[in-house]
Amino acid sequence: MAAFRRWRADRPFLGGLLLTLGGAEILLTQKASLKVVMHIGMQGLAGYLLPVLMVICGLLILFNPAQRLFYSILGVLFSLGSWITSNLGGFLIGLLLGVVGSCLAFGWLPDQEPRRPRKWFRRDRTRAKPVRLTRSVESVGRP
């Protein structure tokens, strides 16, 4: 279990997982059989192609986190494309999972220190002292 925790901490796990689940959900909500899709043509094929590519991008984010920026941008584009090609993006659920997962993967930063709570920043601030003007306001425009 500790090895899995270390592996998960070294990659954008939640982002890749959500993108993969979004693609899987869209695939599961497809109503047309593959025979009908092949008869329809490219529009029907795109309904299966984009969710498969979403799943692939999600898995690549999990197993190759060094290229997460490229895969997350592709994941957002594929998720938004599923709005047109496959049942409104899996009835919005798959689309939202894909977009949120891609955004989480895009924003993930490796080797980042934990954030401090805001109350610690308030203690560190010193009060700013008022600045004294050396020249009066009337003499500003005069030589």
How would you describe what is shown here?
By secondary structure, the chain is mainly α. It has one domain. Helices cover 69% and strands 0% of the residues. The chain is built from eight helices and no strands. It comes from Streptomyces liliiviolaceus. Keywords: Membrane, Transmembrane, Transmembrane helix. InterPro entries: DUF6114.
Essential attributes:
143 residues; mainly alpha; 8 helices; 69% helix
Helix share, percent: 55-70%
Helix count equals: 8
Mean pLDDT: 83
N-to-C terminal Cα separation, in Å?
Answer: 76 Å
The SS-based structural class is mainly alpha
Count of folded domains: 1
Number of strands: 0
Q: So what's the overall shape?
A: elongated
- What is Rg? 25 Å
Low-confidence stretches: none
Largest sheet: none
Order of helices and strands: HHHHHHHH
Percent of sequence in beta strands: under 5%
Which SSEs are present, and which pair or pack?
Elements: H1 2-9, H2 13-28, H3 34-40, H4 42-63, H5 68-85, H6 87-91, H7 93-107, H8 118-124
Helix pairs in contact: 2-4, 2-5, 2-7, 3-4, 4-5, 5-7
In short:
Helix content is 69%, strand content 0%.
